[in-house]
Input
Amino acid sequence: MVEEIGTNTEGDLIINVGPQHPATHGVLHLVLTLSGETIKKVEPHLGYIHRSIEKMCESLSYRQFIYVTSRMDYLSSHINNHACALTVEKAMQIEVPQRAQYIRVIMDELTRIASHELWWGAMAMDLGAFTPFFHAFRERETITDIMEKTCGARLTMNYMVPGGVMVDLHPDFQKDVKSFIQLYKSKFEEYNELVTGNIIFQNRMKGIGILSKEDAISYGCSGPVARASGVHCDIRKLYPYEIYSQLEFDEILDTAGDSFARYMVRLKEMQQSIRIVEQLIDNIPEGEFQAKTKAVLKLPKGEFYQRVETARGELGVYIVSEGGTTPYRIKFRSPGFSNLSALEHMVKGLKIGDLVAAMGTLDLVIPDIDR
Amino acid sequence: MFIKDYIKDVYGAVKSLLTGMRMTGYYFTHHKEIITEQYPDNRATLHLAERFRGEVVMSHDENNEHACTGCSACEIACPNGTIKIINKFDITPEGKKKKAIDTFVYHLELCTMCNLCVQACPTDAIKMAQNFEHSVYDRSKLTKKLNKDGSKLREGIE
Ligand code: SF4
Ligand code: SF4
Output
């Protein structure tokens, strides 16, 4: 139960952060128990943007339910769609054409860059630096333009369908992506100059919000949050899907587990994504972009699970099928929820200003937590 | 010792601030390209990608003919019940009854621009248009009839 806002019996101050607070990036509601400025307790309250997506999916067919998942973690919408398409393909044993696999992986990695760009800008803004936001959005805009040209949407893509991708690439795609890579490489130094190298920034990040390897595992953290604590958890490496097993890229690990480590992991991940896109962009094979599938998809009776690595961590899609055209039950294992649960542990005993810095490095997307 | 560290810290902070400000200054004096779109002032020159999904429309040719047979495939494909197909029965010259579209009802307020209906249509009768300025004062204006008045099915489409 939420205690009355004000003071509790021990004289601690209880205040609300959110649900309408600029630092929580959405409708996250935190109830803080403070002793002076020191944080004693953080209690996240969820449900402000709960749309019961899992329940909605039960009444939608296997082609239709994919579009809803763009609205979970809207910054990794391609990857969410991808996870759903993969689960259906796994259940029906659909062979995805090579071309589609290449397109999907390129799209995933571009999405990851765009998502990390946005996080970088928002993170700096949480700490009071406004300019980086515009720098981040300049590059991100190039990616959304590329997406818009090929997929027709900027955020909620619905581009991956069971069996491949919805439409073929735009003729300009390769040219645009290459010029984006050029632009990105020429601008990347600016990121370090503006934010990473800044002493004030480093002092606010280093040694703040430490999450040990054991805690990261026991809270079920995944993605950059866990990798910054030294947990080897990149699904692209551990359980490769599509063509990830043939690609050369590094899993970025750090051992410090503090806010700065999480920051650096994401920055380096962007460069690995660029590396993946560079390997693929010139070698997209010709051929079909979609496998031939029946108009009405029917999954065999059983349970199916597939996980992918989104920009935030591990997304799992679990489908229980009764053999019909709609799923009996769907469950999404979203990365944001488990990452948020580690927040209290990270910031206990720190000052209230550190909460914002530590929360920024978790890269929370609230619709992903609530669904 | 403390004083020395303190001064060092302040010096470091000022230095990194200046490094950041140098770049801000650079962009301030070297604004070669303006990235911000001056919407809505640039409406006349606004360029949208040709695949941009703004709303569903039905294409009509110059004879006011469309390609929709009224098969309802789009209605079934739509996840939100955005589309309602109301059919009528034409009497052909031979005196037979023939199914044809009467009203293609499209609820723009429900549409999520997912493109599934366009993909499902066997005759490519509908497509996505780029118009994105959908705000109106009255909600009922968002319910549209996509087939034009007096339009009919193009010859040769089954
Ligand atoms: S775009 Fe999607 S939501 Fe809109 S009418 Fe077509 S199928 Fe329905
Ligand atoms: S628009 Fe296409 S799918 Fe929809 S009723 Fe007409 S012909 Fe059938």
About this structure: The first strand of chain A starts at residue 6 and ends at 7. The two ends of chain A are 22 Å apart (CA to CA).
